[in-house]
Structures are given as C-alpha cells and as structure tokens.
Fold each of these.
Amino acid sequence: MENYEKLEKVGEGTYGKVYKAKEKSTGQVVALKKTRLEMDEEGVPPTALREVSLLQMLSQSIYIVRLLKVEHVDKTPKNNNHHPSAAADHPPPPSKPLLYLVFEYLDTDLKKYIDTYRKGPNPRPLPPTLIQSFLFQLCMGVAHCHSHGVLHRDLKPQNLLLDQQKGILKIADLGLGRAFTVPLKSYTHEIVTLWYRAPEVLLGSTHYSTGVDMWSVGCIFAEMARRQALFPGDSEFQQLLNIFKVLGTPTEEQWPGVTSLRDWHVYPRWEPQTLARAVPSLGPEGVDLLSKMLKYNPADRISAKAALDHPYFDTLDKSQY
Ligand code: ADP
Ligand code: MG
C-alpha cells in the first residue's frame, strides 16, 4: 500500500472508509476501499475470493465501476502494552491480512449530484434528458449483473457513481451481491437500505430475486425526477405505510400470497393514488415505466432488459451507449 498516496476521504459507508488516492508510480487517481472481507490467519476465506472474482468479472462492463487491482496487506496490530513483563506473557497476536480494492475514481455519486440541484445556490430540476440517460445506464448495469446471476441488493443513489463531465453513470458497492445461480436460499433480512427496499423484503419474504433491484431502480428514477426520496421511511413499518399510501394497500388479487408473508399484518386499506402526482415532472411514458418498476407482485415487475426497450427511451440516442 506504500505505492498509494491517500488524498482525501471520499466516503464512509457500512464497511469502512473509501479514500481518493494517487498511485505513486503512475500518478493515476484511484479510489481505495478496505473491504470488510477480512481474512483469518489461515488465509482468504473462499467467500471473499468468490466475491472478488465476481466483482472482477462484472466490472468488465462500462456500467459497473472498474476494479483495477486487489491489494493484499499484512497489517500487524500495534502493541500498545509497554510493560515488558506483560509483553513476555502475551506475545503480539498474529498479523491480520486485509484486502484493499482499488477502483477507478469517479468524481461524484448520484446522491451528492441530486443535492446540487435541490439545495445549491440555484435549485432547479434535473434536465429530463439527463434523467433519461442516467436511468438507461442504470438499467444497462443492472441487466448486466442479472444476466450474470448477481443481485446487487443495495441499489441507492449513494452507490451510483458519476462522471459529471462525460455524463456517465456506474454502479458501485457490489459488496452485498451474491450469486443466485447456486441454491436460492433465504437471505438475511437486513440488506437493502430502507427507502429503496422492496415490499417483499419488508414483508419478510424468504425467496426473492431480481425484482428487488428493479424496485430500487424505480425509487431512484422517481427520486431523480422529484429531487427527493419517493418513500422515505424511518422504520420498516413506516416504510411499508409510505408505500401503501401512494400505491394502495396490496391485495391478494394484485399479489397472490402477500397476506401469507411472514411479516404481513392487517393494514388500513388505502386506495392507490395517481402515480403521476408523485412525479409531476415525468411525462406519461416515464410514469408508465415507473409504474412497471413499482408493481407489487415481484413476478409482474419489469426486468432491466425489458425496461431498456420501453417507449420512455424512444427519444434517447441509443447508439451512444
Ligand atoms: P460502502 O460499502 O461503505 O457503502 P461504497 O463503495 O458505497 O462503500 O463507497 C462509499 C462512498 O464512497 C460512495 O457512496 C461514494 O461517495 C464514495 N466512493 C466509492 N467508490 C468510489 C469511487 N470509485 N470513486 C469515487 N468515489 C467513490
Ligand atoms: Mg455504499
């Protein structure tokens, strides 16, 4: 790691700090991320290796942040005990190897970017063509992950990196991705950040699939149009109520099996609102695409690949992508 000069901290997320850094030998600016995938003294846990090679494979797409290198580091813990006798009794613990992931550096993320339009000296809507382009790139990246059997499971504006100059969007933070080609087992309950979390996850469904990402994509689409979150809940219960108040309380007809999900309760029966009211700046095609991403029944939700062919993108010059 001596080959990198840390420039500034650019993010602090769930698993540690992300630094903007310069590779001394080449001058290349990169993002350094210490992974949570700590290895034990025996070596690298196979799951860590699997995830890294998955990341390496997926990052071949221009819609996924490029993983440039994986650095292994032996970090020997400092011995703060200056008692000579104690030191003799307790030899220092073995060194703890770590993995550093070296990514291409992008200048901002979608959350910070939306904030510049919302707050800033000159609050204004995001240009509709920009929303269209970002959503297209997001769907390309998600389609790429899903075609390789990988769910992202934590899609949110903070995890979408942008090159502002070039108008490029890339998916980051694939750390929670798991291959689902191998047994579709029950995942842990806590995965997607609340605001972007699909209703089947909130209701404790044990088998879920690509639809969880498409729900998040819908929430992100709406947030670009609104410059604020569509469903900002502060607890799992409030999150569901926020969703139900806009889309109506789901019924067995719409979503067979919903009332049998683990965390289903009897909720007030809200009628669906007109979705266009929640995203007044979106035209009818945009609202139609959004409604297909926010279908209650995950089986009815539009796939990333199908979304690319939706009429909302008819006015986009797809030859550029
Ligand atoms: P975490 O698992 O901690 O959420 P992320 O990979 O999402 O880790 O990184 C946290 C934040 O750091 C991101 O929201 C983003 O602002 C910044 N960041 C991450 N990767 C890069 C990168 N390649 N270039 C620039 N900024 C980055
Ligand atoms: Mg993140």
Note: Residues 10-11, 13-15, 18, 31, 33, 65, 103-106, 109, 158-159, 161, 172-173, 175 surround adenosine-5'-diphosphate (ligand 1) (CB under 6 Å).
Amino acid sequence: MTVFARIVGTGSYLPEKVVTNDDLAKIVETNDEWIVSRTGIRERHYAADHESASDLALIASQHAMVAAHVTASEIDLIIVATSTPDMVFPATACILQDKLGVKQSIAFDVQAVCAGFVYALATAEKFIKTGASKCALVVGAEVFSRIMDFTDRGTCVLFGDGAGAVVLKASETPGILSTHLHADGSYRGMLCTPGTVENGKVRGDPFLKMDGAGVYKFAVKAFEDVAWEALNANNMKPREIDWFVCHQANRRIIMHAAKKLALPDEKVVVTVDRHGNTSAASVPLALDTSVHEGKIKSGDTVLLAALGGGFAWGAALLTW
Ligand code: UT7
C-alpha cells in the first residue's frame, strides 16, 4: 500500500499592523506607483515589537490544527521554515512546540529562506512516507521587517511579516504527488543577510542585501524549469494544474512563470499585493488565503513553487 502525505488543514496569521506603500514613502524615497508597477505590492504587515516568529507561527498553527481537527497530542513532527528565528538556538520549532503544548514530537527548523516552506514540506513528506511520522505540522514564519535596511529603497519596500501552517497526515490517497528540491550556493551573494552574532556583537551586515535584477532573471527560469520537472515526473500537462501557488515575491515574476506554462490568470494565486514578500511564510499564507477564499477545493491539482537565497528552490505537486 502506498502511503501519501496529505495536507488536511491550513492556517495563517498576519500581524495587526498594516504598512502601505504611502507609509513607506514617508521614510524612504519611493512611491506607490513604482512599487505597484514593479512588484504588485500594495501593503504588507509588520509584527509588533513583542511578537517573534514563534508567536506568529503559534497562531497560524492553531488555526491549521483546528481546520485539520487535530489536537496537540497527535502532532509527532514540527518543522518550522524560517530565516528570522526567535534566537540563535534553540530552534523556533522547539519554542513553538512548547507554546503549542505538544509533547514528545520531533521539532527542528529548516533554513532555505523563501524556499523554506517547500523544503520543509518535502522533508515532512519523507518522514510520513517512511512511517516516522503520522501527523506533521509544517510552518513558515518570518519577521523580515527586523532585517530590513530602511535606507535601502530597493529592498525595504518588498518584504513583510507573517506565518502560514499546514497539518500533514499519512493517507492512502494522494496527497503530495512529488517534491523537487534544488540549491546552488554559487549564487549565495546575490541574496543574503551576511551578518552573524560573534563574541557578543553582530559581525558583518545584519540587513538583507539583494541584487534584484539578478534574482529576477534567475527566478523566472528556475520557476519554469522546476514546474516542468514536477509535471514531467507525474506525466501531467500544465492544463491539468488547477492552482499555481508560487512564492509571492513579485507579481511580474509569478505571471511570467504562469505565462511560460500557458496558465490562465484565474489559476494563479496572487497574495503579494496584500502580504508583500513574507519569505518562507509566503506559500503557506497564499495557500491558506486561497482555501479561505473558496478557491482551492478538494480534488484540485495544486503546484507549489518557491525560490530564495542560496539560491535554494523547489516545487511540490499535490492533489488537494
Ligand atoms: O524572495 C526572494 C526572491 N526575490 C525576488 O524574487 C525579487 C526579484 N527582483 C525583483 O522583484 C525586482 O528586481 C525588484 C522589484 C527588486 C526591482 O525591480 P526592477 O524592475 O528590477 O528595478 P531595478 O532594480 O532595475 O531599478 C530600476 C530603478 C532604479 O533607478 P535607476 O537606476 O533606473 O534610476 C532604482 O534605483 O528603480 C529605482 N528603484 C526605486 N524607485 C522607487 C529601486 N527601488 C525603488 C523604489 N522606489 N522602492
């Protein structure tokens, strides 16, 4: 009997504070027209000072667990994808485990920046397929506002905070059909936050740096290639995709990838206008938003794709 990993519930959380493009235009030389036309972003959310990634993850996870009809005692694996963890260690997943009241589960973080959720989902799928987990919580949670350089208009307008979560269970019916992960560290300087903590001080630059045009060029090709890889692995054609849930960094990149797959606009999930780029949280946030809007329904074929610093990128094809 084939065992599949199946998403049985989704949840998300966006912090209360909404920051519009006009708000940012008050602190950096930018304007709503530039941001909307180049990225599609209209607003993003910022965490309050007292909120950390695990706090955002907690609420998203609680929503996902309610949707999945799962209690804390059933969760045996927690994976948190984040590049903005609460602390150097322990893992944000361990902090989340405690806050959720989950006992005895495996808990660890995955660091693949904006591809983190797809990496975490692929990892959890392997645990479920091997029988090592029966019920997994997979979360993307970020507070990227904390690593923004608010003097750099090329990056600070792009990112936001949030969290998304899914509960995965072992199932006899699909489920995740396949996952496809890639990385190429030779591009690591193109998108990075190069600072670290050493001897009680920050060493290096603790703010996000990006060669936007370079990332853009790589991303459009990577999304197209990894989408075809997922489709070919399942002998499927693009027309069989019901929903394309791409990493929400830039509307132009998403629509470019969709066009390469000849997907009509109606099949493309876009939440970047409301969320900005929330890194590892972007895909599960977009998923949960689409479920709540009544778009993604049982039986639909969903293609997830994400790319981030590293570069690390990947895709997952699934039956909802
Ligand atoms: O999540 C990880 C993956 N990240 C991504 O996928 C991001 C990929 N890259 C992008 O989305 C785009 O490259 C950006 C949105 C970052 C930039 O768009 P672009 O069309 O590539 O613009 P650009 O960087 O080539 O800049 C064009 C102009 C420049 O002015 P000059 O040199 O032509 O005079 C910039 O200085 O736009 C200027 N500019 C801005 N103007 C107003 C850059 N940022 C801003 C801004 N407001 N916020």
Note: The domain at 4-173 is CATH 3.40.47.10 (Peroxisomal Thiolase; Chain A, domain 1).
